[in-house]
Design a protein that fits this description.
Structural class: alpha/beta
Shape: globular
Radius of gyration: 23 Å
Largest sheet: 9 strands, mixed
Distance between the termini: 9 Å
Number of helices: 10
Bound molecules: zinc ion
């Protein structure tokens, strides 16, 4: 195993530039559909070719491709120049907890107000969704001459607010409050004239959305619409140490993975940038980590390169996956919530996550391989474990392993306020992960004997 000369961090990492691009990406990506569209634009700008699952694939060595499923999950890959060894994968997720507008989503109150009937998607912090400008984004499905077609929509103006109840009407609220999603969390959208819309007519929301999409309201057959936070992301702190935005979990990792993928040099293995949907609701969907999406794509790459099942299974043994989903930093007001010895801090580098019950896939072998990659990238890393008396969260690595079983490490970037609509992370850590991803995708891991790994590149 030949050690590469470590790359100087200062030479390769431009924190301000990375944060500007990250914030622009987050602003353009209020839903998983928009995140996938944003990534598709970046991939096409870099010369990658879009593939469709519904059409045959013919792949050429040295070229980059991407494919989407449901418009909300995306896998990009680059084929090496010569016959490949395995797959180097970084997997993250495109979704974040949010409120979804229900079918029949309009409610009149006292024949005066119009509010939206919404339900929870995932497990969010409820309180920070209140008393701030919100709007609506997602996709609509319109009727066409020969069927239906999807259009993305983002109403790009302050449209809604979820007003708190005044303290005078709930004096005990500051002593702890149980939010009722059906009662407390419905956003106010306007005032209506007596009677409102006639039954069966397209509602107010569909009219706004139709205008945005440039279609007639009657053409909208169905929709997946979510509330999103209008507050723009920013870099703050006395030395600009922190980046704050909606959806850092997990678009910060998805963005870093893609930037690393685009910057990588050709390697012996297929580089695979994988962003799956529905992690926040358990991953058991057609485009989630429990689905066949990743497995199908790897199979098709293998077959398109003229290889058989034996070569596919051999390749899996020489493959490595980084499951990248954000991690909890030590909280300055709640230092006791962190483990006594593993205490990740924002700007301290990439967090390697461990869990004895394997909610995180990291074991000594995959941890060691990832530490080797971080060392070659010359980026700092730190360690997360839950307190032994606390249950932690879960993520997509172990779920994906039920479909494609390969050596996997769970990592993330340290952040605060996870699942708030405005989260806080370190201003340096995105660039660290970009660089680690670049090295991962420029590397191959040879595992031709069980328990013995060579890190090549
Ligand atoms: Zn996450």
């Amino acid at each position: 195993m030949k050690e590469k000369e470590p790359i100087s961090v200062s030479r390769h990492l431009e924190f301000d530039q990375v944060n500007r691009e990250l914030l622009a990406f987050l602003d353009a990506s209020p839903t998983s559909f928009h995140a996938v569209a944003s990534m598709g634009d970046m991939l096409e700008a870099a010369g990658c070719t879009r593939l469709e699952e519904g059409q045959p694939w013919s792949l050429e060595p040295g070229r980059g491709y991407y494919v989407t499923r449901n418009g909300s999950a995306l896998i990009a890959f680059r084929i090496p120049q010569k016959d490949f060894l395995g797959f180097q994968i970084m997997a993250s997720h495109s979704d974040s907890p949010a409120f979804k507008v229900k079918a029949n989503g309009e409610m009149e109150v006292d024949r005066h107000y119009l509010k939206l009937n919404v339900e929870r998607y995932g497990g969010m912090l409820c309180a920070p969704w209140m008393d701030r400008p919100l709007s609506v984004a997602g996709r609509i499905v319109v009727s066409t001459r020969d069927g239906v077609a999807v259009r993305l929509v983002k109403i790009d103006r302050d449209l809604l607010v979820i007003p708190n109840l005044a303290i005078h009407m709930n004096r005990e609220v500051n002593d702890g409050y149980k939010y009722n999603a059906q009662k407390d969390m419905l956003p106010l959208m306007g005032c209506v004239e007596d009677g409102g819309d006639a039954a069966g007519a397209p509602g107010y929301l569909y009219r706004l959305v139709a205008e945005e999409a440039g279609v007639a309201p009657e053409e909208i057959l169905d929709a997946d619409l979510f509330l999103y936070n209008r507050m723009k992301g920013t870099v703050l702190g006395m030395n600009r140490e922190f980046v704050c935005s909606a959806r850092l979990d997990d678009l910060q990792c998805a963005f870093a993975s893609l930037k690393g993928f685009l910057a990588a040099e050709p390697a012996e293995s297929v580089a695979v940038h994988c962003v799956l949907d529905n992690e926040e609701v358990g991953s058991v969907t057609r485009q989630g980590a429990a689905s066949t999406f990743l497995r199908d794509v790897l199979h098709r790459i293998n077959r398109a390169m003229g290889r058989g099942e034996e070569e596919y299974l051999t390749a899996l043994a020489s493959s490595f996956m980084v499951s990248a989903d954000n991690a909890h930093s030590v909280h300055p007001n709640h230092t006791d919530k962190a483990d006594p010895t593993s205490r990740p801090y924002m700007n301290g580098g990439i967090v390697i996550k461990y869990s004895a019950n394997q909610k995180y896939t990291t074991d000594a072998v995959s941890g060691a391989v990832f530490r080797t990659i971080c060392s070659r990238a010359a980026v700092p890393f730190q360690v997360f474990t839950n307190r032994s008396d606390m249950l932690g969260g879960s993520t997509l690595g172990n779920i994906s392993g039920t479909q494609v079983a390969l050596g996997t490490v769970d990592i993330g970037l340290p952040q605060l306020a996870m699942h708030s609509p405005y989260e806080t992370a370190g201003a340096k850590d995105t660039a660290y992960l970009v660089e680690a991803a670049r090295v991962l995708f420029s590397t191959a891991v040879r595992g031709d004997r069980d328990g013995s790994w060579q890190v090549i590149g």
